[in-house]
User: Fold this.
Amino acid sequence: MFASGNIAIAEGAMTAGLKFYAGYPITPSSDLMEYLAEKLPQRGGVVIQMEDEIASINAIIGASNAGVKSMTATSGPGLSLMAEGIGLAVITETPVVIAHVMRAGPSTGVPTKTTQSDIFMVRWLTHGDYVIPSFAPWSVQEAYDLTIKAFNTSEKLRTPVFILSDAILAHVWEPLVVKEPGEVEIINRKTPRSKEEYLPYMAEDDMIPPMAPFGQGYKVLVESLVHDERGYYAPNNEKYKSLVARLFNKISSNVDWIFEHEEYFLDDAETVFIAFGSVARTVFALTKHLRSSGYRVGMFRPKTLWPLNEKVFKERIKGRRIIVVENNLGKLVMDVERIMCDREVHGASVLNLESPTLKEIKEVVMQWL
Amino acid sequence: MALIGKTHPLDPHLRADRIPTLYCPGCGLGIGLGAMLRGLQKRIDEGSLNRDKILWVGGIGCSARLTFYVNYDSAHVLHGRAIPFAVGAKLANPELTVVVVGGDGDIAGIGGNHLMHAARRNIDIITVMFTNFVYAMTGGQVAPTTPLGVRTTTTPLGNPEPPLDVVKVVSSLNANYVARASITTPHYIEQYFYKALGMKGFRFIEVVSTCPEIYGRHIGLRDPVEMYNELKKRVIYKPRPTLDEAVISWEKGIVIGEFVVKDNPGFIDILQGGSK
Assistant:
């Protein structure tokens, strides 16, 4: 089919088994919900437009605990409103997927235009300690594929997961191959084996507790307070440390599985561009353009932004000059500097409400080549 | 020692290992919960309700914590957000009977917008709101129901804000059921909750309660019995109260009864009808 990035995310979600969507209209994410409002009920799911983003995130958490795969999508100010609810999904270990379609900010900003400014927002949105996996596609096909991965990650690790798109990708139309049932691996949350010994937050060896849905006699207790294995409030150091450390480690210890990236012309590259999302499309074109002019440049594109696989960064791009190109004032570059602390790392910030042009990026990066 | 091994008749409904509760002596919440559970027991006994299909949802506050003492599927979620969580759970699994419990701050203050839209949608959940006129768990700050002029920790010169009449607000929307009882009339709590469990659409029950520690003590009602008796004196039962009578007035009395009883299609009916 021929589809936009927003449609691709919606289709990916339905392939992954989406059954409940709650959302609130906000540009540039709205047409994702509009598409699902038509398609999802035909596949036995429910779409509801809630009174605000706060209600939307809490409704999908309720629905997920009732046993169905759930998601929402939003942009800029909408994600700000969802912050507390996403923390609830973290501590209650509720699998939900949030598609964040970035627009220009701060505040109301420019609703219809793009940036990549929110990559730390999805990393440190809510209070407390946690890691929330975030995937940043660069094409319509990848928006579809990474949405399935996002659902699989949320179900496997009982965690909220972000898909980080932007206004460019949301509305670019490209060919999309939709997978047939059975053609792609779909992961479903594990459920408890017995009602008698069931404790809602008793983790197994993989640090993940089996998840029982409401309505089947498990006497589930979903608890937003710091809790013990039973879900009982446990305001003591020992339980707090073990819970928060487990919530963190269950994600970070799976970084090899969560983290995906692509490499282009790395073998002989003296200079490596790092770019993600829609901007990476232009950087890829620039890389090819510069190579044809004789520059030994390559490109490293993380498809997963958080958690970053620091080992992969060190192994693959060690010993080169690194230029991080982003459509923001310089965010990912801070982490790359930290990871490659002894290397030459430059931040190429190219703020542009449309999409930085090849010429614009070239002008910025040439000072280091 | 004779008591060991004996249980309270409502124990099967409770996570008994969590008892004693954190509630203060004289708190009205125990009476309220006891009455609700007796209403629920009747529904289970008569076979019209499967206890595995009941979900309790609470936000934050003393009243919301009732949800983690009950031995059912339950969720203790964010301040003000019990209703949207409940809406999601109900839409995901319409077989569930979903009961939201919270205080007036949780349900009508921070959660007021969700309450309004749940009532407008006539979504198939029951909301029981305990009104104690104050934010109790956080230490006695002004609530949307605090009477005019009352001193609280955040209105030390007296509350300058007229209170919200939540029964009137919910009745003005599309809810199928709106009733008010008081912890001084537990039989009505039981009766209304029993009735609500058998209905569809949005059902709202306000329970006027006592908070002797955080509210009573500060308005000159120095012990729980005195506070209970003062409330009891003011409660007036009317079988068919009008909405004009819904206002809660310490001077003129507090009218309890069923303000709205309708049998309109619930949200789930419309959704299922609409998708055919």
